[in-house]
Amino acid sequence: MSALLTITDASVRVGRALALDGVSLQVGPGELVGVVGPNGAGKTTLLRAALGLQKLVSGEVKLGGRDPRTTPPAELARRVAYLPQGRRLAWNVPAWRAAALGAPNAPPAKARQIALEALTAVGLETLAERGVLDMSGGERARVVLARLFAAGAPLILADEPTAGLDPDAQLLTLELLRGRVEAGGAVVVTLHDLGLAARACDRVVVLHRGRLAAEGPPRHALSPSVLAEVFGLDGAILDTPSGPVLAAGRTGPSR
Amino acid sequence: MSRSVLLLVLLCGGLVAALAAGAALGEVPLSAAQYLEALRHPSSAAGEIVWSIRAPRTVAAGLVGAALGLSGAVLQGLLRNPLADPAVLGVSALSGLGASLVIALGLAVLPGAVETAALAGALAAGGLIAALAARFREPETLILFGVSLSALGGAATSLVFNLSPSPIAAAEVLSWLLGSAANRDWTDIGWAVPAMIAGVALSAYSARGLRMLTLGDEAAAVSGLPMARLRAAAVAGAALLTGAATALAGIVGFVGLAAPHLVRAGARDDPGLTLLPSALAGAVLVILADLASRLIPTDVELKLGVVTALFGAPLFGLIAWRVARSWRA
Predict the structure, then answer these.
(1) d(CA B263, CA B282)
(2) CATH number of the domain at B2-328, out of 2.60.120.10, 3.40.50.300, 3.60.110.10, 1.10.3470.10?
(3) Which residues of A touch B270 (CB under 8 A)?
(4) For the segment A155-184, what is each residue's pLDDT rounded down to a tens digit?
């Protein structure tokens, strides 16, 4: 297995504090990796470091065997596609036009075709001409996923792609990302919903104050002791007939 | 696609009509026979009026409008802000400062001095903003720096007034700052055109970067496009266009703000497809404003910048109203 992403002992400083403190992570094809942790644990910083958007104070990042900070833009986009937090779109462009931004270096006709295929993959083919700001939040989330898929990169990094979505749309988002994994790609996704992480991910990485607190199969990484130490939760991931759920309460008045 | 093509056809038609009206109409009414004579004998009296006074003035107004409209569209795309225009980044203010200084120092008699100073001011502002844009990606930061640069330019221009050696020099500066295409000849246009061509080329190059910025800075940064270069091209292009427009006709406000808004719906909001229609709409707007300044019967001819601001400011209010309503929705 050739690694798509290798992070070795990476530390990142944001302001004075270490936002990432000696974190290592390897991601290979066919994996859906969930990154979880309380707010401020370093999840977004980890993704930004992986993309070369964040300078390391020590350690090393290799994206497809190469330092992303010295990789030319077009080459970098062939290796990785990134969905930042928020999915804000500045203008009310048609959905196909937004999806086509995934393939900016393709000729216009080809880019449109790629965009329409990506919209079909997320079930939005009938709304290709609809303005993205005239859509519901759930539809817009699928448009930005289509843009991500249109890029055609083997590795996808998605920062909280399920935030603000209803439960069905959250599951659909992870199903669509799973589809990319089954096609031989790899996905790293940050999540706040631990039940969703346990259900959807092959592997879960738990960050706590910039450090790697646990890593492994969901049930192992999200053990009761990790839930208590990292999240301040008293509980466990339970199996139910329709998948794993988080059953937990707060352990104390403050963290 | 057909919608944006239709928009371009309409705008081109409007531009041809506006150019024709600009060359034909003016304070001195001409008869049909005189128009024919002007067409047949450009050196006749009527021909002089049409070809040496009205035509260059109209072409200058059109070029100024096109440059400002395009510059506004580039900046709105770059900053992802529908309220951005060349004034926001301080480009107009520094351009105006450069020209004011030259006029107040009595150097305006030198050929090309005012134009060069206006362009130098715009480029200084553009260079500063481009350097900041390379360091800080957030559009809010650029707007904040632009506002401070704009205030500084305005204050320095006031200082020029304050210290200006004679009331005549001060009046000249003021008259220039109010903007006008009157008395522009083909030589003046020649001074501005090279900078405009460079500005158009840089803007066209930056178009795909502006479109990518629809996704926001973070996503654009790993989108496969050389965003740093495209962003720098956008800033430099907008600065050259604004500087050239200011050099040619002084400060003409609100066109850079209004033109992109008039065409945005027709271009389906696409920041790349908005550029060309914005330039055409800007040209039509300023030619019409210049015509209005000529034809509205006042004792002293109205200044171009006054007319565009009188029409532009209410439009700005209307835009703000609509934006505010969309925020509430």
Answers:
(1) 10
(2) 1.10.3470.10
(3) 91, 93, 97
(4) 999 999 999 899 999 999 999 999 999 999
